[in-house]
Write a structure and sequence with these properties.
The chain is of the alpha+beta class. The chain contains three helices and twelve strands; from the N terminus they run H-E-E-E-H-H-E-E-E-E-E-E-E-E-E. The chain has one domain (about 5-205): Lipocalin, CATH 2.40.128. Helices cover about 20% and strands about 40% of the residues. Keywords: Membrane, Transmembrane, Transmembrane helix.
Length: about 210
């Protein structure tokens, strides 16, 4: 028999796992969590402010390639995450979708809980998403400017990715269209900005090594 404390911890892990699986589709390459504490209180959401990505960061191996390899912890976000989740039809419409978005907001969409382990070369990236020490998602993608169909968060996603001046740019074309740009900030943090006709959000990861 589980104690009340064990059941509580198990429940929190389950909700956190939902957060990871839901946002995995939204970023394609890093499946960059696109998560935000703003979801719990949209009036307090940080406004989304695009950042001009640096072309020569300390981990840039060439003008057109940046190495994101390492372990990262989700630490901050910007923008209206609820709008993004609705655009991506996370959980479907009606009550199921609303209740799932509320559950994601309740755990700040994984902020402080989620870690990512990235291993990559210029042309390929492998990403593991870990919550509470448990592996919840593993995604592999090619960075070659060609359309690829992959499985992410239990869904089929069609997208293509390319390097532009050291920024990893991914273009998802199905089941919905949006653009994601991933780059390193001057202080070494990893930032992903995702935009579409309906939302603009950003997530930031800090090295956890």
């Amino acid at each position: 028999m589980l104690t009340d404390d064990e059941r509580s911890r198990q429940g929190r892990r389950s909700i956190a796992a939902l957060a990871v699986r839901s946002v995995a589709v939204a970023t394609f390459i890093t499946v960059s969590a696109l998560v935000s504490s703003a979801g719990a209180n949209r009036s307090a959401a940080k406004p989304f402010k695009p950042v001009a990505e640096p072309h020569n960061t300390r981990r840039a191996l060439s003008p057109s390639y940046t190495d994101f390899s390492g372990t990262w912890k989700l630490t901050s976000t910007e923008g209206d995450m609820d709008a993004m989740l609705q655009f991506l039809n996370v959980g479907g419409g009606g009550w199921p979708g609303w209740s799932l978005r509320q559950a994601l907001a309740a755990v700040n969409y994984g902020v402080g809980l989620e870690r990512r382990i990235i291993n990559m070369t210029r042309d390929h990236v492998d990403t593991e998403v870990i919550v509470g020490g448990i592996l919840h998602e593993a995604v592999s993608n090619d960075i070659d400017g060609k359309l690829h169909t992959i499985s992410a968060a239990g869904m089929t996603v069609t997208a293509w990715a390319e390097w532009i001046n050291g920024t990893l740019v991914s273009h998802q074309v199905a089941p919905v269209q949006f653009l994601a740009r991933q780059f390193l900030l001057p202080d070494g943090r990893m930032r992903t900005e995702s935009t579409s006709s309906s939302f603009a959000v950003a997530v930031v990861y800090t090295r956890d090594e």
